[in-house]
Automatic annotation (TrEMBL), chain A:
The chain crosses the membrane at residues 37-58, 78-106, 118-140, 160-183, 203-228, 248-271, 283-304, 319-341, 353-381, 393-413, 425-448, 468-489. This is Cytochrome c oxidase subunit I. GO terms for biological process: aerobic respiration; electron transport coupled proton transport; respiratory electron transport chain. InterPro entries: Cyt_c_oxase-like_su1_dom, Cyt_c_oxase-like_su1_sf, Cyt_C_Oxase_1, Cyt_c_Oxase_su1_BS. The lineage of its organism: Bacteria, Pseudomonadati, Bacteroidota, Bacteroidia, Marinilabiliales. It comes from the Bacteria. It comes from Mariniphaga sediminis. The keyword Lipoprotein does not apply.
UniProtKB/TrEMBL annotation, chain B:
It is a multi-pass membrane protein. This is Cytochrome-c oxidase. Signal peptide: none annotated. It comes from the Bacteria.
Length: 536, 94
């Protein structure tokens, strides 16, 4: 493998192009700067989402009204969901680490369409502002939940249109990123980088890009139909006019279940990079991991109905969706077995990214297994719309995507910023966050099993103990989050300079300087027969 | 990519395809005046499908693209078809 050494070229953080200062960032078509733009935007929105989540948990500290009334609680969980789903975890790892690393990992100077890439970020920002407009102006904050279920979404008096249009625009951003990545992976791989040598993070970005491209338009059209219902009363989802509200649920989940895989696949990809690096060992079952990625992407597209088991669907459809839900668990399990097998007899280097990756496996396992409870038809009816679902979902999406995101930021931080973080504080942040996470969400499994419904600001006295524990967990989690953020922000500015390859990684990003120069490589690298991303 | 051959399609071919699309659009409007019963939607969809085929083949150059690009397009339509079938597992058996 040709390593590049272009220390003299200005790195992407310092490079001065046509514009200076902030304009030099928001008009930059450099994939690395766009990745960071996403990082800062998403971190901002994530912080807002965390504050809303914190407020919800505080409300649930005691039965009855604690800090907000029922309507405010409905608006809070709606906005929390819309922000966290559409602005944080759906763009998630692809928007930040995909943008930053994909071209470098495949030996390219940028993505295939750099201007389209910048447009994606601008669309993201436009979508964010539209949703924020729905909160701040008009007749009231949306209160439908992030799923915008019909018929309530076109009957509620709250300010739905900007929120729905914002989600629509955010979808466009996602589609353009997916398209860009597909073309980049197909067309810009460096010489010698065959499909069978692609890093697994790239493979997961590839699978994700297909889902983004095929599933997102469906939700776009569905949201347009909601807008048409509100504006013109077309009646497609309105039973009073011969419409079918369950059709809305089909259309919504045709996107929104694959969206879960948009969230989790790149997270799995990041974990598949981190575990071999910190085990200093070739990934176990490289081809099985690729096959499972593509199987999850494909089968995951066809299981949406398991969100609708109690909605009045036909029994035939319920059997089908339940069966496929169990099948999609198989490739996920294959991944877990492969990660653990990679560690076996490896030379494990206990660093912060590895702690995050290992805890990812732990929480993802619990989240995945509780998903099987929900996928079983009879059990689903018992726990449907209870706190159990909230626990399962947060174990998968926050515990999965969130933990993988933190793993990834700690893994690639020295490459992105050219500085190393304080490892002791990073480890402290991880353990506090991890304890907070378990304390916050684990009681919800119990509360759900005992029958506590989700999406209520009030509950029966018998659920008080579990809710107190959960609320305390939210405080611990936020403490961990603050430690992590302060450490990373401080280290990005004044941390010690990082080496080119501090973890002894084998993928191409570790062959360029930290931080990378503007166009990554002075010469496009060329891979030999024996080169590969995990050849330790 | 500079090392790839580009097939140049004469303008008249595009004009013929455009005329074909206009004609099919008019036909798809006309067919709504005929009562086909339960096949009304199917009739309109047949015209739409032929039009899509023409656009994909000629305007989007699938006719001259590499097989893997054609395969991708077929895959997308297959996913679409499967999605419709799965949705109707609910509607037909409700």
């Amino acid at each position: 493998m040709n390593s590049t050494s272009i220390e003299n070229v200005a790195n992407y953080l310092k490079y001065k192009g046509k514009y200076k200062g902030l304009l030099g960032w928001i008009f930059s078509t450099d994939h690395k700067r766009i990745g960071l733009l996403y990082l800062y935007s998403m971190a901002t929105m994530f912080s807002v989402g965390v504050l809303l989540g914190l407020a919800m948990k505080l409300e649930l500290l005691a039965p009855g009204k604690t800090i907000m009334d029922a309507q405010s609680y409905n608006a809070t969980f709606t906005v929390h969901g819309v922000i966290m789903i559409f602005m944080v975890v759906v763009p998630g790892l692809p928007a930040v680490f995909g943008n930053f690393l994909l071209p470098i990992m495949i030996g390219a100077k940028d993505v295939a369409f750099p201007k389209l890439n910048l447009l994606s970020w601008w669309l993201y920002v436009a979508g964010v502002f539209l949703v924020l407009a729905a909160l701040l102006f008009g007749p009231g904050t949306p209160d439908t939940g992030w799923t915008f279920y019909a018929p309530y979404s076109f009957k509620t008096g709250t300010n739905m249109l900007p929120a729905v249009f914002g989600a629509f625009v955010l979808g466009f951003s996602s589609i353009l990123t997916g398209l860009n990545f597909l073309v980049t992976i197909h067309r810009l791989r460096c010489p010698g980088l065959k499909w069978s040598k692609l890093p697994l993070f790239v493979w997961t970005l590839y699978g994700t890009a297909w889902i983004q491209l095929l599933a997102t338009p469906v939700v776009g059209i569905t949201l347009v139909l909601i807008a048409l219902e509100r504006l013109f009363g077309v009646g497609i989802f309105d039973p009073a006019m011969g419409g079918d509200p369950i059709l809305y649920q089909h259309l919504f989940w045709i996107y929104s279940h694959p969206a879960v895989y948009i969230m989790i696949l790149p997270a799995m990809g990041a974990i598949s990079e981190i575990i071999p690096t910190f085990s200093q060992k070739h990934i176990f079952g490289y081809k099985a991991l690729i096959a499972s990625t593509m199987a999850i992407a494909f089968v995951g597209y066809l299981v949406w109905g398991h969100h609708m088991f109690t909605a009045g669907m036909s029994g035939t459809a319920q059997y089908y969706f339940s069966l496929l839900t169990f099948i999609v668990a198989i490739p996920s399990a294959i991944k877990v077995f492969n990660w653990i097998s990679t560690m076996y007899k490896g030379s494990i280097n206990l660093q912060t990214p590895f702690y995050w990756a290992a805890s990812f496996i732990f929480v993802f396992l619990i989240g995945g297994l509780s998903g099987l409870v929900l996928g079983a038809l009879a059990a689903n009816i018992y726990v449907h719309d209870t706190a159990f679902v909230v626990a399962h979902f947060h174990y998968i999406v926050f515990g999965g995507t969130g933990f993988a995101f933190f793993a990834a930021i700690h893994y690639w931080f020295p490459k992105i910023f050219g500085r190393m973080y304080d490892k002791a504080w990073a480890n402290t942040g991880w353990i506090v966050f991890f304890i907070g996470f378990l304390t916050l969400y684990s009681p919800m499994f119990y509360l759900g099993m005992m029958g506590m419904p989700r999406r209520y600001y009030d509950y029966l006295q018998e659920f008080h103990g579990g809710n107190i524990l959960s609320t305390i967990g939210s405080w611990v989690l936020v403490t961990g989050f603050i430690i992590i953020i302060v450490n990373l922000v401080r280290s990005a500015r004044i941390g010690p300079k990082a080496e080119m390859n501090p973890w002894n990684g084998k993928t191409l990003e570790w062959t360029v300087p930290s931080p990378p120069p503007l166009e990554n490589f002075d010469e496009i690298p060329e891979l030999g027969e024996n080169d590969g991303p995990y050849n330790y | 990519m500079s090392n790839e051959k580009h097939h140049i399609v004469p303008y008249r071919v595009y004009v013929f395809v455009l005329l074909g699309l206009i004609a099919l659009t008019l036909l798809s409007i006309e067919i709504t005046h005929i009562d086909l019963g339960s096949l009304t939607v199917a009739g309109a969809m047949v015209f739409a499908a032929v039009k899509s085929y023409l656009v994909l083949t000629w305007f989007m150059h699938l006719k001259y693209d590499k097989p893997y690009i054609v395969t991708m397009v077929i895959f997308v339509f297959a996913v679409f078809a499967v999605t419709i079938v799965v949705t109707f597992l609910d509607y037909l058996y409700r």
